[in-house]
Design a protein that fits this description.
By secondary structure, the protein is of the alpha/beta class. The protein contains 13 helices and 17 strands. The radius of gyration is 30 Å and the shape is globular. The strands form five sheets. Strands 4-3-7-6-5-8-9-17-14 form a nine-stranded mixed beta sheet, sandwiched between helices. It has a two-stranded antiparallel ribbon with strand order 1-2.
Length: 382
């Protein structure tokens, strides 16, 4: 058994104590719980809490654990609260997140991937082509991730091991690294990446995920609400890559999501609006949140930066039915505004005052104040 722990105690004595307890629990579990790996994992934090120790990687090997799937055991780590994220490689092996993400530029796409569609692959490929052209990313190593949240895995109520392994196997066969996380909010996912890297982070998403970011029900636990979540998400060089959606699919999404925010699309009542692509430039959020989502026709608190992502040349009907074959318009980022400095008007010759003149000589007085030596040399006033 090989595991990696992250110690959260601030003092060395407490870290040594917590690490010793984990070691004792590991030896005890290997001797008495080796026939039930799930119970072994749950026993690792006996007499401890997740506030002191985080077990973010666990790998079983040997004849005693020949029937154990390490991916399911890693998923059980997240489900039991021992960690908030685990990672799998393209070959299905369990990876240590700190080794993969350390000082790397990260591009991630979140989804359920049930199943993996042409749209999911095209979205990430197009976002990758744009991401590597960013000035902050050129010449640096990039990690591309497919991320699944525990909310998606537990959508049916209970965890289906076969369904989970099928999703991971398909993503691995395509060649992607998979991240399983317990971070429903995007700002928490960004904070997790900031543990390991200070490089740029890109997030590829569709219109439906963009609208979910503006859903205020996810930020009720924050004192600053949605404004605080945006400050946490975009404070460290984070950029969103928005993939377009056809209007009929967009309307089906609004009808199927009872809690979706009220939105409109520019040109929705036009005769040809059925073929309109809904993208980040023509979608509108709720009226009271429009100051957080700027458009070119409105001055807002945030500054918008746009980019165009060229699509792939795939001719698959599944891809062309959702995305444009020419361009994927808009990528939007938020940054703090730069206000122009106020400039003082130069005084005109009419309002300019003449320099003062000396009463004794009648000449213009010097701008330099006389020093003590000059005062001593000057004749006394009579």
């Amino acid at each position: 058994m090989v595991l990696h722990v992250r110690m959260w105690d601030k003092e060395n004595i407490l870290q040594q104590q917590a690490l010793g307890i984990v070691g004792v629990n590991l030896i005890y579990g290997a001797c008495y719980y080796h026939q039930d790996p799930r119970k072994l994992i749950a026993s690792l934090l006996d007499n401890l809490s997740s506030d002191r120790i985080e077990v973010d990687m666990l790998r079983f090997s040997g004849p005693a654990f020949a029937e154990v799937d390490n991916r399911l055991m890693s998923l059980h780590l997240v489900n039991c609260g021992l960690t908030n994220a685990v990672m799998f490689g393209p070959k299905g092996d369990v990876l240590q997140p700190s080794e993969v993400l350390y000082k790397m530029a990260i591009l991630v796409e979140r989804g359920s991937f049930r199943p993996v569609t042409h749209v999911n692959v095209d979205m990430l490929n197009c976002a990758t082509a744009q991401f590597i052209q960013e000035p902050a990313v050129k010449g640096k190593d990039v990690v591309v991730l497919m991320e699944i949240t525990m909310n998606n895995l537990l959508a049916a109520g209970e965890l289906d091991a076969r369904d989970f392994l099928a999703r991971v196997d398909i993503l691995g066969d395509i060649g992607f690294t998979v991240l399983i996380s317990n971070y429903p909010e995007y700002y928490r996912l960004g904070s997790y990446f900031r543990r390991y890297t200070k490089e740029m982070i890109g997030v590829a998403m569709g219109i439906n995920n963009l609208l979910e970011i503006f859903n205020e029900k996810y930020y009720e636990n924050l004192e600053g609400g949605i404004l605080e979540s945006f400050g946490r998400l975009f404070r460290h060089s984070v950029k969103l890559y928005i993939y377009p959606m056809r209007k009929d699919a967009y309307e089906r999404y609004l009808a199927a999501a009872p809690g979706a925010p009220t939105t409109t699309v520019m040109g929705g009542g036009h005769a040809f609006s059925a073929n309109v692509l809904v993208h980040a430039r023509n979608v509108h959020v709720s009226p009271h949140l429009q100051n957080l989502y700027p458009t070119s026709s409105r001055t807002t608190t945030w500054t918008a930066s746009w980019a165009t992502i060229p699509t792939s040349s795939a001719s698959s009907p599944a891809t062309s039915s959702v995305a444009s074959r020419r361009t994927i318009p808009p990528v939007r980022t938020w940054s703090r505004p730069r206000w122009p400095r106020p400039s003082r008007p130069a005084p005109s010759s009419a309002t300019r005052r003449p320099p003062p003149r000396s009463k004794r000589t009648g000449r213009a007085a010097s701008a330099r104040r006389p020093c003590l030596r000059d005062r001593m040399r000057s004749p006394p006033n009579r």
